[in-house]
Specification:
Elements: E1 12-14, E2 17-18, E3 30-32, H1 35-39, H2 47-59, H3 81-112, H4 117-142, H5 150-156, E4 159-161, H6 164-191, H7 204-224, H8 232-255, H9 257-262, H10 267-282, E5 288-289, H11 295-315, H12 321-344, E6 348-349
Parallel strand pairs: 3-4
Antiparallel strand pairs: 1-2, 5-6
Length: 358
């Protein structure tokens, strides 16, 4: 008889410690930046709002929230097969993303402490939140007899350099889309408790408020640096980062739609809702947003999904590497063309979606 309850087949660094997933264009990234440029930022234009947000961080509303209760004290062997594998992947991606934020914010806090103490305090307090999130997720992985070695991840992950304004665009969107992802799952499971396969989802309501406050901090930072928002280059970059974040989430989630089905969600409908809400939220600070209601928007992303499936099939074939490359090339070009066409769709002025966020 096949033991369907054994651990999914993941490579391990040592017993119970998972080898981090291979880095791809769709996996969470680790960032570094120009710390000297960040230290020289004049925050006076929006200092009042920044100080108010830091005061909220100091209040630490979730300091007693991330405490595992008796609902975790049980066996999770009934979550097995593909559902177990996909859930572990979900926990790993989430943990890696939160830990990436922790490392970036902690380093910014350390580097800016003497040069820009207000900014340093904001980053240090956000790193506290991200550390809690990552630790809670990693502990959840251990319920499935695996965990991540976060020290190993720190030393062995590649770091992507972004100028400060790109850090602001990317992390703002990461925090806000995180808010909409978590609150949407929470509200669904609140209405359908029978779909809640694991207690971590009960923590998402308070959890996502950390994400929301972090996003608000980057919103205030960008408003303190109006040159990051008010020229033609900013309009182009905002479109680029919006499309990058939305396309990455959509491609990842549709590939893992069985996981979302296991908690009663349709992955495509879920992503469309999250993208709509994040896009509208971004309109509060970005000068332009994407026209996600355009009929081509998801049609072209779906072509990219199909291309990814074909690329995966080629990757697992027995063809020699040069043959695989030639077979993959048309699909790479097709996906690049689809994304370029989406980038060139006429954007909406930010005011167009004001009032649509609830």
């Amino acid at each position: 008889m096949v033991d369907s309850l054994k651990k999914p087949e993941f490579q391990e660094l040592r017993e119970g410690v998972k080898v981090p997933s291979k880095e791809t264009i769709l996996t969470p990234r680790f960032y570094t930046t120009d710390f000297d440029e960040m230290a020289k930022m004049d925050l006076s234009i929006n200092e009042v709002e920044l100080r108010a947000l830091i005061e909220e961080f100091r209040a630490d509303y979730n300091r007693h929230h991330f405490v595992r209760d008796e609902q975790f004290e049980q066996s999770w062997e009934h979550i097995d097969g593909d559902t177990r594998r996909l859930f572990i992947e979900f926990l790993e991606r989430s943990c890696t993303a939160e830990f990436s934020g922790f490392l970036l914010y902690k380093e910014l806090g350390r580097r800016l402490k003497d040069k820009n103490p207000l900014l340093a305090e904001g980053f240090n307090l956000m790193s506290r939140d991200e550390a809690r999130h990552a630790g809670f997720l990693n502990k959840a992985m251990s319920d499935f007899k695996l965990s991540l070695d976060l020290g190993f991840l720190t030393q062995n992950h590649k770091y992507t350099f972004f100028k400060p304004k790109f850090i602001f665009y990317a992390t703002y969107l990461s925090e806000k889309i995180g808010y909409w992802r978590y609150i949407t799952i929470y509200r669904h499971l609140e209405a359908h408790p029978e779909d809640c396969i694991y207690p971590i989802f009960r923590f998402f309501e308070n959890w996502c408020q950390d994400e929301n406050r972090h996003g608000d901090f980057f919103d205030a930072l960008m408003k303190s640096q109006p040159q990051m928002l008010n020229d033609w280059k900013a309009r182009l970059w905002c479109r680029f980062f919006l499309l990058s974040v939305f396309a990455t989430m959509y491609l990842n989630d549709i590939q893992r739609q069985d996981f979302y089905a296991s908690i009663g969600l349709n992955a495509r409908d879920y992503d469309i809702y999250v993208i709509e809400k994040t896009n509208a939220t971004a309109g509060r600070v970005f000068p332009v947003i994407l026209n996600v209601d355009h009929p081509e928007f998801y049609q072209r992303l779906d072509v990219c999904i199909d291309n990814n499936e074909r690329l995966g099939a080629i990757a697992t074939s027995n063809q020699p590497a040069p043959v695989k490359f030639l077979q993959k090339l048309p699909f790479y070009l097709s996906s690049g063309w689809q994304l370029l066409r989406l980038y060139l769709l006429k954007p909406l002025e930010a005011e167009a979606l004001q009032g649509k966020v609830r």
